[in-house]
Please model this.
Amino acid sequence: MAQFAPDGVPTIDGCRPVVLRFLADGETHQLKDIISGVAAIMDLADHVVAQRLSSGQGRLENRVGWACSSFNQAGLVEKVRRGWYKITEEGRAVNARGLIEYSENDMLEWPKWSAYRAELRERDARSRKDHADGNELAGRATDADEDPLDAISRRVDGVNAEVETELRGLLQASSPEFFERAVLEVLWAMGYGGKLGGIEHQGCTGDGGIDGVIRQDPLGLQKVYVQAKRYADGNTVGSPDINGFYGALHRRGADRGVFITTSSFSRAAVEAAEQFAGKIVLIDGIALTSLMLNYGVGVEARTQYTVFHVDRDFFEDQ
Model:
């Protein structure tokens, strides 16, 4: 990919090395200052910097923002707080190479980025499987025959998958108490509490394997019990965890439970849950963050677009 796009604005690949060069002083910088710094280092003309997308966002702002976001995912910069970035030792190593451009494929040398891209592929595979007919995976149309609306939808799905992946990382970095409350909010948003139900967070030392309860009626006669495990990627939930959760449900005389984790479930854990005749539902980190987007938990709508078509009924009276 070229360093500059036809519009004269640096591509994302062209922005990345310059972002690192600007951040090489080791200080924490705000995104707007990084954008100005990139423009100054590359000696961009005012009319180039002034270009805007249809959404109103500056083109350079958009591309520098994506560069910073990808670097944060790869571990080359640290997002200190919202809109503020600082270079890491890995970022210094790349900056020392004096690159003109640095692509997403080039970034696969970093394990964090490789794992991030692998998760996006897994999300894409699940999405295509969910929308396929029968057991066949949905095929992708070529650029020549793809419906424009399908192309837009696919791009939107890709952006949302990146948001979901970022969400999962934030949940893994949160406290156990926050994660337990967050999963209860997700289940509540899904409607499990009904109109007159309630949420009870129970997570604490000696909680007996139950982190929360959702009452589905005013008297609490119907309850959904929840266990939440905030695990890193290398720490999968195994069958002993599932058996322990079933034991906790049995002691309370419960007939349903949801086990949620930020990581994944081992095959043995899935098989253990299946033995309990649907009484335990498993939700892994990818499924959880997809639900968060679908039900608006921990996210905000960024941009909405309206696509028109001709109202042919309007012309029928000609």
About this structure: The radius of gyration is 24 Å. The CA atoms of residues 141 and 150 lie 9 Å apart. Strands lie at 29-30, 77-81, 84-87, 198-201, 212-215, 223-229, 257-261, 280-283.
